[in-house]
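Module 6 notes. Inverse folding takes a fixed backbone as the condition and produces residue identities as the prediction. Think of it as a translation problem where the source language is geometry and the target language is the twenty amino acids. Below is one complete input and output pair. Work through it position by position during the lab.
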């Protein structure tokens, strides 16, 4: 009698072989797909590095510098006289064609103070407050403090909380006379200035790529040059944070700030604008923002704004016609 429970070992072996083959094919296909996906994402990352979109930025929103500021520093809310723009007062300058000795900014190169771009502006004889009659300060909430605490009431301030080197073109933070708001760059186009002071970079410390930051900063400088071809452009260093802040924050610390400041210094050489090492005005002997100057480790009080203003007065680039 035939045993109906007899095991067909040959059939089992064949089934096992086919099962292993299917598994090998599945694993191989999965590996190929994963490699294809990896190649695609690597290509996307390098492609996006040539653009200026926000997709390649990783910003620590919980530690965002501006969210730590408990003060209401909405530009123009309490200082409309400093930030409101009058579109009728454009202060246009003569557009005479420069002669052979003048550069593209209409300035005589032979009259310029000797200066090496890519180096910090050296100390000089202090200027009076009137030097800033035709000056504009551009930047983030630290620049907003110029209008809040400043004894420099004659300077124009175009700034806003959270402003970065990309959102300076898109974020509408400057009040207009009709009650609306426009971007900093649109506001800058409405009036001519003799000096432009700009400070950006603190909010960008969390970006994934520092080269993307400095590339975009260069575009900001290019646009300022286009809008203000006759102005002296001063680029301020990013201010230091306190020792407590630098020791407790993986992003907003003085090591990262120093790296960004080196990038900014090199950019000023390429763009031929003036670098102000303004952190010298505030930093203690260890290079930190003094603890008694700040409540959040980042933003400094009115007394330290005065120190900064005094530093700016004693670090200017003068041409003979300025003397």
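Target side of the pair, the amino acids:
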């Amino acid at each position: 009698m035939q045993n109906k429970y007899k095991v067909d070992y040959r059939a089992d072996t064949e089934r096992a072989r086919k099962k292993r083959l299917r598994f090998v094919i599945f694993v191989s296909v999965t590996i190929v797909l994963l490699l294809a996906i990896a190649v695609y994402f690597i290509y996307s990352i390098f492609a996006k590095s040539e653009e200026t979109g926000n997709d390649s930025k990783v910003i620590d929103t919980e530690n965002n510098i501006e969210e730590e500021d408990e003060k209401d520093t909405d530009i123009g809310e309490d200082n409309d006289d400093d930030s409101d723009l009058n579109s009728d007062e454009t202060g246009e300058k003569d557009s005479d064609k420069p002669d052979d000795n003048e550069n593209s900014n209409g300035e005589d190169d032979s009259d310029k103070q000797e200066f090496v771009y890519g180096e910090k502006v050296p100390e000089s004889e202090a200027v009076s407050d009137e030097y800033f009659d035709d000056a504009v300060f551009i930047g983030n909430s630290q620049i907003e403090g110029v209008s809040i605490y400043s004894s420099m009431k004659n300077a124009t301030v175009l700034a806003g909380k959270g402003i970065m080197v990309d959102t300076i073109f898109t974020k509408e933070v400057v009040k207009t006379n009709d009650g609306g708001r426009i971007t900093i760059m649109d506001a800058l186009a409405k009036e001519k200035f003799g000096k432009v002071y700009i400070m950006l970079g603190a909010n960008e410390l969390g970006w994934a790529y520092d080269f993307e930051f400095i590339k975009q900063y260069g575009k900001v400088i290019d646009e300022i040059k286009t809008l203000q071809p006759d102005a002296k452009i001063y680029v301020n260093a990013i201010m230091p944070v306190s020792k407590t802040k630098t020791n407790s924050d993986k992003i907003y610390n003085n090591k990262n700030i120093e790296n960004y400041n080196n990038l900014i210094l090199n950019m000023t050489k390429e763009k031929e604008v003036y670098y102000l090492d303004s952190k010298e005005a505030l930093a203690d002997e260890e290079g930190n923002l003094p603890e008694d100057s700040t409540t959040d480790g980042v933003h400094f009080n009115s007394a330290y704004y005065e120190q900064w203003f005094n530093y700016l007065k004693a670090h200017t680039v003068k041409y003979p016609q300025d003397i």
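Reference fact for the lab report: The longest strand covers residues 135-139.
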